[in-house]
Amino acid sequence: MKSYIYPTATSTSRALIRYIIDMMNREPERIFYLAFSGGTTPSLMFDIWAHEFREETPWMRMRIFWVDERCVPVNDSDSNYGTMLRLLLREVGMPDEFVYPIYGACRHPAQEAKRYSDLVYSTVPLRRDFPAFDVVLLGAGDDGHTSSIFPGQERLLSSFHPYEESINPYSGQPRIAMTGCLLFSARKIIFLITGKSKTNVVHDILESGDTGPAAYVAHHAEDVDIFTDIKPAG
């Protein structure tokens, strides 16, 4: 596990964008399959990406997927797809055929999780019999959840179904979450975690045990980087 620490959320986001662009430029003939999370921190990154890195990003070699989604319409402010569409994808003119959203407005989340699992299986290159994203971008909640896998839902970390329905235990909102079989088959896991409220989460990831879903993924995935503006304790 490697950690990259920057002074602010803005500088952290810029560094991560540059990291992804450089990764793609090292293999200029290859298509990259990337799965993105939602939330406040990625929203800042999307805005910076659209306005500062638009011209140098190899958009046509990206295939965009999602780590998780809230079961809301695309025009809802909670929609991860809707947020990225508004802040980044429309701004840079990303072709629809390179974008693979989870349909959050579905009435039956379990069915949509199955549909999206099948889509990912048929689109993303396989590695050890599972689809292997080049980059899975994760965040972490104050409680240590990631990919809409909350404490108490650790069974999803050992699931062999690529996506499953999950429930936000605080609001009861249904979600669709990437599970362990994809998280642990990814070529690269990147955590983007900023803000003082996440200090304990970053401490758990860097210095503690498997104290929550985010820490567990960070400790057991094959290749993990953490981009943060939080300095380790001590």
Separation, N- and C-terminal Cα atoms: 19 Å
Strand content: 15-25%
Overall shape: globular
Question: How many E-type strands?
Answer: 11
- Classify the secondary structure makeup into a structural class: alpha/beta
Low-pLDDT residue intervals, each spanning 5 or more residues? none
Mean pLDDT: 96
- Proportion of residues in helical segments: 25-40%
* Topology pattern, helix = H, strand = E: EHEHEEHHEEEEEHEHHE
Task: Please give the count of helices.
Answer: 7
Q: How many strands, what sense, and barrel or not for the largest sheet? A: 6 strands, parallel
Radius of gyration: 16 Å
Strand order within the widest sheet? 1-11-10-7-2-3
Topology:
Elements (H helix, E strand, L loop, with lengths): L1 E4 L3 H17 L6 E5 L3 H13 L9 E5 L1 E3 L9 H13 L16 H15 L2 E2 L2 E2 L3 E4 L24 E5 L6 E5 L1 H4 L5 E5 L5 H9 L5 H8 L3 E5 L6
Parallel strand pairs: 1-11, 2-3, 2-7, 7-10, 10-11
Antiparallel strand pairs: 4-9, 5-6, 8-9
Walk me through this protein's architecture.
- It is built from seven helices and eleven strands.
- With about 230 residues, it is α/β, with parallel strands linked by helices.
- It has a six-stranded parallel beta sheet with strand order 1-11-10-7-2-3, covered by helices on one side.
- A hairpin with a 2-residue loop joins strand 5 and strand 6 (about 130).
- The two termini are about 20 Å apart.
